[in-house]
Amino acid sequence: MTEQTTPVDDTRPAEDATSAFVPQPRSEPLTPAATEPAATEPAAPGFVVPPPPVAPPLVGEPQEPPVKVKKDRRVLRAVLRWTTATVVFAAVGASAAYGITRMERTDVPGLATEADGRWDYPAITKPPLPSGSPGPFAGADKSGVHSADLRALLLPAPKGAKADASLRGDDGWLSSKAFLSQYAEKVDRETVGQMLTDYAVRHIAARGWTTPDGTRTRIYLLQFDTAAVAEELASTKLANYGGAQYALTGAATTERDEHFPAASEIDDITRFAYTESKPYGPEQVREAYLSAGDTIALVVQSHKGTAPAVPFQQTVVLQSQLLD
User: Fold this and answer.
1) This prediction's pTM
2) How far is it, in rounded angstroms, from Cα 122 to Cα 312?
């Protein structure tokens, strides 16, 4: 069966000849010469969708100019609205994020920092210095001599703590024998006692307390003639890198406290912090030696079971600041 065509009026313009041609389905697609330019999406195989038929203009009839298709303004308005909304939401989101980063953590609902175990210490202030006396690490020489009263350099007890009367001593000065009683072995008490004599300890001041949770704290300050003497005794005799040289009562063996924050170190203070090695006895003991100029500090905390790390670190750092 052959394909039929409709005669076309030869009087119409040549460029409209294809517009009046309506093809019938056939096994082979039309050639490009007989169809409109190919669409962006291909048609089904074996068939080309023709353009809609357009009636040829009558001869002599005036032709109207082609009507321009106006774009749908509703579509444009919708696109404009969505674009504006996206920009507004992005600006609001960026502002909110910036505002949160500028707030303190405790000011953001749901992000308030919970209590981490710190004690409520009173405001820490350094005692006044004698007229004309510099601080221990002030000036170019940094002699390390503490001119302030050693008893005033002891850290005060936190809120709610009960003072340990046994550490008050005579007018605030503790005897060497009372200080040595904290060491567990008799031979250690004798050895350390001889060191205090050899290195000519001048004063010993102490303070202690027990907090409501049962943690017991003891702080001892030992003052010597020079910073060099105190540094040598602390670094080579009483403490070393791995653990304390002489065991305290309740802490047969100790090891370096690897969890003590390094960021809390103070430039002019040498710190040796230890924790009791496992297995613990009835209570765990934490201790730290501080070498601060002409003064050595020993901070000891013990608690039944496990001694909390945070209050120990807090106490050691605050005492270091007072000696700085």
Assistant:
1) 0.66
2) 16
